[in-house]
Amino acid sequence: MTKILMTSVRDDEKPAIKAYAREHQIEIVTSPKLIQDALDQLDGVDGVVIQQRGKVTDNVYPTLKEHGIKQLTTRTAGYDTINLELAHQNGLVVTNVPAYSPRSVAEFALMQIFRLLRHTPVVDHRVANADFRWSGLQAKEIHSATIGIIGVGRIGGTLAKLLHALNATVLGYDVKPREDLKDIVEYTTKEDLLQRADVVSLHVDLNPTSEGLLTKKDFALMQPTAGLVNASRGPVVNTADLIAALKNGEIAAAALDTVEGEATVFAQDHQADQLKDAPQIKELVDLPNVILTPHIAFFTNIAVQNMVDIALDDVMAILNGQPAKHEIK
User: Fold this and answer.
1) How far is CA 142 from the centre of its chain?
2) In this predicted structure, what is the pLDDT of residue 78?
3) Cβ atoms within 10 Å of 143's Cβ, excluding its own
4) Rounded to an integer, what is the distance from CA 12 to the centroid of its chain?
5) Residue 241 phi, psi (nearest 5)
6) What's the 3-state SS for 78-147?
7) Is a pLDDT exceeding 90 seen at residue 90?
8) Nearest Cα to 113, choosing from 214, 232, 198, 179?
9) Mean pLDDT, the chain, as a whole number?
10) How confident is the model at residue 77 (pLDDT cuts 50, 70, 90)?
């Protein structure tokens, strides 16, 4: 019987995993550990599916090869945690799940855009301190707002359609503009988008060209009343520069679902240590004009189901000698 190891498994994923195993008559072993901490479970395993925010350690690749494993699948869209060169050197086919549910992240970003337009970070901070004044908090209605989307792909494009349906003006910046969105998105330069947008929403993959995409000089271009939504990847934004911009009033607010250094913080309980080892994230938490969420934009019923099913479909294809739909070359 085919045996697959899935690591970093959460309780909410287990029903989908059990259903898949039952339907396909295979054995799926689950572990809450990262792959580098679950290598002792590889005996008899035919395939591996991972999900983790930190890097896969270099020893994993030759260990998978030694156990006769031919693939490595991440049930996430991002695959920057995997060293593709090392994986390929060890004969591993790498796959990901590029579109588990574009609406999940797009809807989350839309919610955060509304929250920034309505100044809810500052409102929540005031109310928490028994200050119920609303001076200086006049909002913009969505149909009168200009929203800039950096990265108009699957998720960004879905967000653009949602915004268009609400009659917002949608600006877009992408190295490969989508023709099918030309009647919805006004494509422009990054600089022009930053200068004109009331809220900028980031939806780019993490790669060498997108790392540090927004820095001090970019925040200086934005309106002092503008907000930033990041539901893509943390390193896309220079956190130190963002904190300075928020403190200096260069931009008004930020809604961050992902930040630099999140791997040791998100999905963990830090009530005891109060983030003493993550000073930048602690600073963001304490700022009155920041909404910080722990990388949950993807976290919906449909997305979780799709992440499990699509990842396992690719594993089964490879094990059966067939091409995987989502192989990363």
Assistant:
1) 24
2) 86
3) 10
4) 18
5) -65, -35
6) CCCCCCHHHHHHCCCEEECCCCCCHHHHHHHHHHHHHHHHCCHHHHHHHHHCCCCCCCCCCCCCHHHCEE
7) yes
8) 198
9) 96
10) confident
3-state secondary structure of 246: helix
Q: What is the average per-residue pLDDT within 54-68? A: 96
Distance from C-alpha of 62 to C-alpha of 53, rounded to nearest angstrom:
21
Separation of alpha carbons 111 and 327, rounded Å: 32
> Catalytic residue positions?
233, 262, 295
Neighbouring C-beta atoms of residue 119, cutoff 10 Å: 21
The answer to whether the CB of 227 falls within 8 A of the CB of 117 is yes
Helix H or strand E encompassing 201: strand 199-202
DSSP characters over 259-300: -TTGGGTTTS--TTTTTTT-HHHHHHHH-TTEEE--S-TT-S
Q: What is the pTM of this model?
A: 0.89
Phi/psi at 21 (5° precision): -60, -40
Residue identified by tokens 């820095």 is 215
Cβ contact 207:80 at 8 Å: yes
Q: Residue 45 — φ and ψ, nearest 5°?
A: -85, 140
Report how far residue 303's alpha carbon sits from residue 160's, in angstroms, rounded to the nearest whole number. Answer: 19
Cα pseudo-dihedral 305, 308, 310, 316, rounded to 10: -140
For 202, phi and psi rounded to 5 degrees? Answer: -100, 130
* Strand-pair partners of 74: 50
Residue owning tokens 């003006």: 169
Q: What is the pLDDT of residues 205-216, one digit of tens each?
A: 988 999 999 999
Helix (H) or strand (E) run with residue 72 in it: strand 71-74
- Cβ count near 42 (within 10 Å): 19
User: CA 286 to CA 36: how far, in whole Å?
Assistant: 34
Instruction: Give mean pLDDT, residues 94-118.
Output: 95
The one-letter amino acid code at 328 reads I
Q: What is residue 53's three-state secondary structure?
A: coil
Centroid of chain to Cα 241:
20
Q: What six digits make up the tokens of 15?
A: 């029903």
How many residues belong to the chain?
Answer: 329
